[in-house]
Fold these 2 entries.
Entry 1:
Amino acid sequence: MSGYVKVVGLGPGAPDLVTPEVQRALDDATDIVGYGPYVERVPRRSGVRTHVSDNRQERQRAQLALALAAAGSRVVVVSSGDPGVFAMASVVFEVMDEHPQWQRVAVQVLPGVTAMLAAAARVGAPLGHDFCVINLSDNLKPWSLVERRVVAAVDTDMALALYNPRSTARPEGFRRVLELLQRRCEPARWVVLARAVYTPQESVRSLPLCQVSADMVDMRTLVIVGSSRTKRVGPFVYTPRQVTTA
Ligand code: SAH
């Protein structure tokens, strides 16, 4: 059997940020599996089957990929950004964990440029010192844990990258995190709102925490909250590397 599953990251949007390794995997695939908008980012090639599914059908997608590979197909599962960051790689391993018959399928994870790195690069280097990454979706964890993690990051003065900040199904979460941040941090703390970076709809702005409102973000936005030391130089926002106080 020559079948396999490669779980790949397509980067934030632009073809330039698809790695050569991921491109080769796409070129060699017999089957491409993924959420519709991500599969659409892969140029059509004759002889390749595409298997498009809804955003919520992650487990079925992983099961399909493993079953196709077990039957001999060269399967590529596509995620945006990096497949290990709030994306399909963990789902594939969860399904393997539950289905011993698939534990011998050859699986490989190919990294991609995750949204926070693309967003950070657009403004300078806000993640240039210690930082923390939190998914604001509470679909898979209690909301109280999200808040505890945000507080822990702020209390140890780390910068924060916030994924999945706000959806129509979860309009309140980001507002609550914003209120929490506005209570605990100084009003001039730098915040970066990076929407749809590396796509034609890109918009990126940096502003002080006191000027941020919840309606400025949506599901296509990656939010970076600076540490207390994050600052501006010319048009850039960056976090210096040295910290002298504990
Ligand atoms: N695996 C992806 C993240 C998936 S979670 C990655 O590594 O980037 C989806 C969230 O990622 C979105 O809600 C948004 O917060 C962020 N995101 C993905 N692509 C983005 C882009 N081009 N610009 C800004 N944020 C993006």
Entry 2:
Amino acid sequence: MDLDLVVRNARIATAGDVFDADIGVRDGRIVLLGEGLPAGAREIDAAGRTVTPGGIDSHCHLDQPMPPPARMADDFESGTRSAACGGTTTVIPFAAQAKGQSLREAVDDYHRRAGNKAAIDYAFHLIVSDPAPSVAQEELPALISEGYTSFKIYMTYDDLKLDDRQVLDVLSVAREHGAMTMVHAENADCIGWLTERLLAAGKRAPRYHAASRPMLVEREATHRAIALSELVDVPILIVHVSGREAVEQIRWARGRGLPILAETCPQYLFLSAEDLGIDDDYQGARCVCSPPPRDRANQQVIWDGLRDDLFTVLSSDHAPFNYDDPAGKRPEGEEVSFDRIPNGIPGLETRMPLLYSEGVLEGRISVNRFVALTATHAARLYGLYPRKGTIAVGSDADLVIWDERAVTIENARLHHAVDYTPYEGRTLRAWPGMTLSRGEVVWDGEKFTGRAGHGRFLRCDLPSLLPGGGPVGT
Ligand code: DUC
Ligand code: ZN
Ligand code: ZN
């Protein structure tokens, strides 16, 4: 058999196994796995190195329309370039419906934004901010059948939030059509009330963002989301879980046999409320995201949940705003009060190396769990498996060859369009030595070698889940 590429002597890690083999690739797919494969047109020697499936970042925001003056720094070109250089080969950002807008219009607009820009493959989640009858009963079912099988709903943010009745409406559609609902769980009224009191007391600095969104606010909304999903009898995924109180709610729900899935992000492992500033310094605006990072004890709670199966996926929640930019963290060029700072931090490129280094190489999680959390589970949850998320005959040749060497994170060496990283100066024990997207080298360990337009849009099948809520088969 003619092979376009052979990755030789790989130590392959999947969600279930670790084994040594050569990987034979033709037309962008894995066609052979075994010892002593025939020569390929191109050969890559992976001797002594671990090879994992390319990452799937199933929660990231790229070129998402924002209320003015905010504007995201990354479009599909810079965002997917950055992802590729950090070992991610599929992204699933959000086609966001503005209130009053048709969902179809939001999807069409988002396709125009992705256009010929993506360097790696991509699918879309939907953000449903206005489940009017025409949206819930006509557009949403039609879009699900066309391959947009997951949507995010918000319990906070004035321009996006749904009330409980609307949440029930959306969950009913998800149940009827087998789609997956992602829930941003924070109590909007509590946040509004706390924010008003903080501002009235003159507490305006970025660090008060954390005080306006304490864990109770996340706990209450998580509990309510669980109850609403129980009422409708449908699985949900609680996104960006930040610490103990939400974790306790999810463990409680699982104990009752409810299919509640959970996602967390690197910021809840590596950042804390102190990164928002220990005094009134505005620099803390860089780390303003929601829910906010907590403290060290909560970081440990999140690590425990990654190890013991509480979490199904680790995503970046990449939400790219420049620090020194009137369209970013300094609206109109000003140091504004904490409630006016655009929420979000960049993390597409650092997600995989952070977890491989600090999780796998520091002995906190197995390499199999790493693969499950960064690729396989997302592929199953969002209907991309087994084309994506594993190393198997028939799967796309989306691969990461890991270099285990010390690398210090410097924004100047990252590939996004954001003017900072919250992880500046942190030294890791590994970085992708090579990333392949459908058999093409898109990152060679030194530079981006892919091209805008290589990425293809992926239609998602329905999620595959066990009755208990866990993805099938791992
Ligand atoms: N929180 C979100 O819900 N989305 C984007 C960024 C953030 O911090
Ligand atoms: Zn969110
Ligand atoms: Zn988000």
